[in-house]
User: Which sequence fits this backbone?
C-alpha cells in the first residue's frame, strides 16, 4: 500500500496561493536572519578562543548555554501558544535576539559572553514554535513542503556563519554589532507576518479543531514509543552535526594544517550542503511518506560518516557534502510525522522537537568539547562516525500515514 496521503484540509487552504507563498517566503527569510545570527556564535570560536584564552570545554559551554536555553523554553512556549496563540511573539523573539547579539559584541568577560548567548537562545525559543505553526497555516495542506521551506531558510542562514566569521576575524569582536541590523530586519518582517497570522487565526483554529476530530487516535503506548524513537533520531542527527559544525574547523587545522580561512570555507561548503538537503526532505516526504525519508536521511549517512575519518582532505570535503544533503532532510520529515501523530498539538510538537534539537546540539557541543580536551579531536570524529546507525530504530515507528489513508 502506498504511504502517500492526500493533503489535509486546513484554514490555509482557502487562502490564495500567492498570499500563502508570500507568508512562507517571509518565514523562511526570517529564519535565515535568525539562524545567521546564531551561526555567528560557533563560527567565531577561533577568535574568541584566542581573545579570552578559552579551552575546548569553555567553547562547548557557550554553545551549551544558548542551545539549552532554547531547548528548555521551546516546549513551554509551544504548549502555551497552543492554547493562547501570540501572533506578535515572533517579532518579540527577534527583539530578544537583538539584545543578545549587541551584548555579545561588547562582552568584556567570559561571564558576559555566556549571558549574551543565553539571550540569543531565548530569542530563538520564542521564535520557532509559533513560526512553525504559521508555516503549517500557510501550507495549503503541503505540510512537508512548508516546513522544509521554513527550515531551509534557517539552514542557509547557518551556512553563512563562516562567512560572517571571516568579517569578525579581520575586524574583531566588536564587529558583531553589524549583525544587529539582521535582527532589526527580522523584527520588521515578522511584525507583518504577525498581522497576517492574527487575521487568519480564528478561521484556522476552527478548521483545525474540526479536522482533528475526524482523525484516528493512537494509544498512549504507541505515541510514547514513537516519540521516544524520534527523540533518539534527533539525538543521533544533532550530535553528529554538531561534531562537524563546531569542531570541523579544528579537525582540519590539526590534521591537515590548513589555515583558519581555508577551514572556514570547508565549513561553509558543509553547511551549504545542509541547507540544500533541507528543502528536499519535506516535498519528498509529501510524496513517498515521512517514515521512508527518515529511514534514508538518518541511516543512509552511516557509510559516509564511517569513511570520513580515513580519507584525505579533498575526499573529506566531498563526503561532508553527501552527509549534509542526506542528513538535513530528516528534520522536516520528523516534525511533520510527529504533528500527524498528535493532531492539534502543533506548537507543542514544534517546541519539543526544535527544543530537543537545540538541547541535543548544546549537550553534544559541551560533551564533545570535554572529550576532545581529554582525548583528541581525532577520537571525537572516530566515535561520532557511528551515531547514524541509531537510524535502525526507524523500523519500530508506527505506520501513521498508512493508517490515516485507511
Assistant:
Amino acid at each position: 500500500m502506498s504511504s502517500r496521503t492526500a493533503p489535509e484540509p486546513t484554514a490555509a487552504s482557502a487562502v490564495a496561493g500567492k498570499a500563502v507563498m508570500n507568508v512562507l517566503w517571509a518565514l523562511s527569510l526570517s529564519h535565515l536572519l535568525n539562524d545567521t545570527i546564531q551561526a555567528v556564535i560557533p563560527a567565531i570560536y577561533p577568535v574568541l578562543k584566542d581573545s579570552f584564552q578559552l579551552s575546548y570545554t569553555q567553547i562547548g559551554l557557550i554553545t551549551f548555554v544558548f542551545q539549552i536555553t532554547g531547548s528548555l523554553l521551546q516546549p513551554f512556549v509551544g504548549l502555551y501558544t497552543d492554547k493562547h496563540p501570540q501572533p506578535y511573539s515572533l517579532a518579540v523573539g527577534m527583539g530578544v535576539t537583538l539584545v543578545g547579539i549587541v551584548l555579545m559584541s561588547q562582552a568584556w568577560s567570559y561571564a558576559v559572553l555566556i549571558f549574551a548567548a543565553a539571550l540569543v537562545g531565548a530569542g530563538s525559543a520564542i521564535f520557532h514554535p509559533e513560526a512553525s505553526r504559521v508555516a503549517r497555516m500557510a501550507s495549503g495542506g503541503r505540510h512537508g513542503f512548508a516546513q522544509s521551506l521554513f527550515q531551509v531558510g534557517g539552514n542557509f542562514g547557518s551556512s553563512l556563519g563562516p562567512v560572517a566569521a571571516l568579517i569578525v576575524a579581520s575586524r574583531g569582536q566588536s564587529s558583531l554589532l553589524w549583525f544587529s541590523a539582521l535582527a532589526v530586519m527580522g523584527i520588521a518582517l515578522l511584525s507583518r507576518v504577525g498581522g497576517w497570522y492574527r487575521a487568519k487565526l480564528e478561521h484556522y483554529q476552527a478548521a483545525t479543531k474540526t479536522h482533528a476530530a475526524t482523525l484516528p487516535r493512537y494509544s498512549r503506548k504507541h505515541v510514547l514509543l514513537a516519540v521516544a524513537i524520534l527523540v533518539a533520531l534527533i539525538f543521533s542527527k544533532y550530535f553528529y552535526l554538531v561534531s562537524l559544525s563546531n569542531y570541523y574547523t579544528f579537525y582540519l587545522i590539526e590534521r591537515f594544517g590548513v589555515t583558519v580561512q581555508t577551514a572556514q570555507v570547508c565549513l561553509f561548503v558543509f553547511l551549504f550542503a545542509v541547507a540544500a538537503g533541507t528543502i528536499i526532505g519535506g516535498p519528498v516526504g509529501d510524496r513517498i511518506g515521512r517514515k521512508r525519508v527518515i529511514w534514508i536521511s538518518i541511516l543512509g549517512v552511516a557509510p559516509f560518516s564511517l569513511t570520513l575519518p580515513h580519507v584525505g582532505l579533498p575526499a573529506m570535503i566531498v563526503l561532508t557534502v553527501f552527509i549534509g544533503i542526506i542528513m538535513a532532510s530528516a528534520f522536516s520529515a520528523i516534525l511533520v510525522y510527529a504533528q500527524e501523530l498528535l493532531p492539534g498539538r502543533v506548537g507543542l510538537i514544534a517546541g519539543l522537537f526544535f527544543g530537543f534539537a537545540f538541547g541535543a546540539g548544546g549537550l553534544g557541543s559541551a560533551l564533545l568539547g570535554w572529550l576532545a580536551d581529554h582525548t583528541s579531536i581525532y577520537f571525537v570524529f572516530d566515535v561520532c562516525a557511528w551515531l547514524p546507525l541509531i537510524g535502525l530504530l526507524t523500523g519500530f515507528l508506527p505506520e501513521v500515514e498508512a493508517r490515516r489513508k485507511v
Remarks:
- DSSP finds 17 helices and no strands in the chain.
